Amino acid sequence: MRIILIGQAPFGAKVLEGLLEKDEQVVAVYTPPDRPQGPLDPLKRAALDKKIAVFQPSTYKADQVFAAYKDLKPDLAILAFVTCIIPLPYLELPTLDTICYHPSFLPRHRGASAINWAIIMGDTKTGISIFWPDAEIDTGPILLQREVEIGPDDTAGSLYFNHLFPMGVDAIIESVDLIKAGKAPKIRQNEDEATYEPPCDDQVAGIDWKKSAQEIYNLVRGCDPQPGAYTHRQGEKIRLYGARLLQDPVAEQPGTIVQIDSNSIHIAVNGGKLVVGKVHSERTGKVKAAEFALEHALNVGERFASAL
Fold first, then answer.
1. What are the start-end ranges of the E strands in 22-141?
2. How many domains does the chain have?
3. In a domain, 202, yes or no
4. Are residues 34 and 92 in the same domain?
């Protein structure tokens, strides 16, 4: 079976490694163009080490790019951590179709920031889906799914790296086995249960201190490590990471700094305290909270402004 792998980053590299361990025939890898003066993408590096052809088109709309793809005569294409839109002709060309990894339990949380939104919206469970992509975003029929609990202190980073990353790699390899055996299902998604959220960027990452403690904590966890939930101090954007929520009632107004210790900054929220371990500002970059407090001459009693 001739496989084309389209992807990037450590996830794509691990999928390639898993396929080769199963003696699958990966005839080419597609990955984004190199970043100026940046390190090689892990998937590209892994493919070059195995002498697998690497393609890095800046666009998939050019006729010559599709012609080269067609010349590879793929039986199966695998989308493993793809952040660009792959046109429908590429998806339909392989004789056995195309499969795609998505880090949510579809049809919930379609879109580019599924992991972030599962936490931000207070879900207690999520999962991964391997599906057959079509012309829409994350709407194709399901091949395989796996579910996982979201821990009360999980961040987008911990959920991905501890669960959705390894689970996804294993699920892709299992899906390839099912396709080879002729046992891969195509289960239609239930549109009544579908949700779609926008990219998790600064349009949604601003903290409103009037919201409940749990809502703020979910936002901070869901934006950790990217893009970083933020507040304002003296007009400067301040991003918060490594947070914990203490259900200790406080008298101070939400957003007020109630304690600074050697490890963290404690901030009053409605129904408790947000304990922040790391902070990012343009002046200091991302540093430990105590270092940030010293550098910015932060004082107990100060109040962060809502990012509205």
1. 25-30, 53-55, 76-80, 98-102, 125-131
2. 2
3. no
4. yes
Q: 185-199 pLDDT, tens per residue?
A: 999 999 999 999 999
Mark whether 36 and 177 lie in a shared domain.
yes
Rounded CA gap, 126 and 146, in Å? 9
Task: Supply the pTM of this predicted model.
Answer: 0.96
3-class state of residue 21 by DSSP: helix
Best CA proximity match to 99, nearest among 82, 113, 112: 82
**What residue type is assigned to position 110 of the chain?**
R
Q: Are 99 and 143 in contact (CB under 8 A)?
A: yes
Query: What is the extent of the structural domain holding 267?
Result: 213-295
Convert the pLDDT of each residue in 78-131 to its tens digit.
Answer: 999 999 999 999 999 999 999 999 999 999 999 999 999 999 999 999 999 999
In-domain check, residue 205: no
The b-or-e profile of 197-220 (16+ CB within 10 A means b, else e) is beebeeebbbbebebebbbbbbbb
Contact between 230 and 240 under an 8 Å Cβ cutoff? The reply is yes
Q: Could you tell me if 157 and 48 lie in one domain?
A: yes
Of 164, 193, 222, which residue constitutes the final position of a domain? Answer: 193
Question: By C-alpha distance, which of 237, 242, 244, 199 is closest to 224?
Answer: 242
